[in-house]
Amino acid sequence: MTVRPPSPARRLLASLAVRRGLVLVLLAVAWEVAARVQNNPIMFPSFLETAAAFHAAVLDGRLLPAVGGSLAVLVEGYLIALAIGVVLVSLAVANSFLRDALQTVAAMLNPLPAIALLPLAMLWFGLGLGSLLFVLVNAVIWPFALAALSGFEAVPETHRLVGRNYGLKGPAYVIRILIPSALPQLISGLRIGWAFAWRTLIAAELVFGVNSGQGGLGWFIFRARNELFTDTVFAGLAAVILIGLLVEAVVFRGLETVTVRRWGMLR
Question: In terms of residue numbers, what domain contains 151?
Answer without folding.
Answer: 59-260
